[in-house]
Every structure is written in C-alpha cells, then in structure tokens.
Write a structure and sequence with these properties.
Order of helices and strands: EEEEEEEEEEEEEEHEEE
Structural class: mainly beta
Number of helices: 1
CATH topology: Jelly Rolls
Strand content: over 45%
CATH architecture: Sandwich
C-alpha cells in the first residue's frame, strides 16, 4: 500500500528531521492526478516561513518537471528542474540531491537530470513533511500533493546518478548506500521510519492505496 493525499490538507509530518544540512538526497515514488499545480513531495524546513529544501512535482511549470528547490532567509532561491515531466496517474520516481550550498540536482525516473548552482545557505532544518510544504512563505505558499506517495528515503549524502537510477528501477531505499540512509518510510500501511525511528504523524486522515512495485 501507499498513502493517498487529497491535495488540500492531508500530509505526514515528523516533529524532528533526520538531516541537519547538505549534502542530502530525497527520493520517493509518486502517482499524481494533478499536472497543473505545485505539489510538495518531501520538505525539510528551519522555520515556518523561510529556510527549506523541497522536492516538488511542479505541474505549474512548463513541461511538468520534478524540482529540487532550496530557499534561505536572505531570499535566495535555487531551482533544479528535470528536463522531462511527469504524467498524470502514472507511478513516477522523483529524486533531489543537494550536494552543497551551490549545487542541487533533480531526477525523474533516474534520468532527465537538471542542475542549479545558485548560492543558497539553508540553515539546519528542524521539521519535515511528506506530501506538503505547509506554510505561506516565499517564493510559494502552501502546496499539497494530490495522489499517492510511497518509498520515501532521505540520505545525509549526495547519491550518485548510478545509485539514483537503481532506485528508479525499483530497488528499495535500504539497499542503496544504507550507511548514509537516515530516514526510510516505505508507507506500506504502517507509518514507520525503518531507519531512523522518527515518529510519523498522519495529519487529516490520509488514506492507504495500492503501492508501487519495488524489489527488496
């Protein structure tokens, strides 16, 4: 099973975050029915208003890319967009890598990578969300995923293109650079962080649905 979000107010949250700064990697599978809006898949943030790293499905951008975005309190924004876009009602693998304050990359299905080198100095995150970027904040307001998310992984390292390609082929997160994996929630019914033991809260009753196929 996966978790299904209504695009309005449903999301999963963690009161603390498994990463303190870059480098970091976010990855998940998603299946959305929305190709026109801004959908936050994974978010870690410092405050309710500014510093954050977010992995998005950006239906509001031409070509519907996956975007890895970093924002800091000085107003700097770094956007790395994939060169191909996601499709409605199709399981898609999304991945974002922040190697440093001046390097971020987004991947769609293990390929179509796009990079960005804007200097963005994000402070140490204190909370995390799956399926939402909840706050009214620069440069976008709240954004919630419409559809399914599964196999969420966060690493405190910058995964290589080859490692990301293996995730997109269906390898589970715990088989890819496990020594750097700090959060892993398969989202198969139970809300369990199998790696870091963080408590995951289901906000506003997101429901379970069919899970994408992966290989343990």
């Amino acid at each position: 099973m996966a978790y299904n979000f209504n695009g309005t107010n449903q999301f999963l949250s963690m009161a603390t975050t498994p990463v303190s700064s870059s480098p970091l990697t976010f990855a998940c599978w998603f299946n959305s029915t929305n190709t026109t809006g801004i959908q936050a898949l994974i978010c870690v943030n410092v405050t309710a208003n500014v510093d954050r790293h977010v992995l998005y499905a950006r239906g509001d951008v031409a070509g519907d890319p996956v975007r890895m975005q970093s924002v800091d309190s000085l107003g700097a924004v770094g956007n790395a967009d994939t060169t191909a876009g996601y499709s409605s009602s199709v399981w898609t693998h999304a991945c974002g890598v922040v190697s440093s304050n001046t390097s971020r990359t987004a991947y769609l299905n293990g390929a179509s990578s796009g990079t960005n080198s804007t200097t963005v100095s994000v402070g140490a995150p204190v909370q995390a969300s799956i399926g939402a970027q909840r706050f009214s904040s620069f440069p976008t307001g709240p954004s919630f995923t419409t559809g399914l998310i599964a196999e969420v992984g966060i690493w405190n390292a910058a995964l290589t293109a080859a490692e990301i390609a293996s995730l997109a082929k269906g390898m589970t997160c715990d088989k890819v650079r496990p020594q750097s994996l700090v959060f892993y929630a398969p989202l198969v019914r139970e809300l369990i962080d199998q790696k870091g033991g963080l408590t995951i809260t289901n906000n506003n009753a997101a429901t379970v649905a069919n899970h994408t196929r992966v290989y343990a």
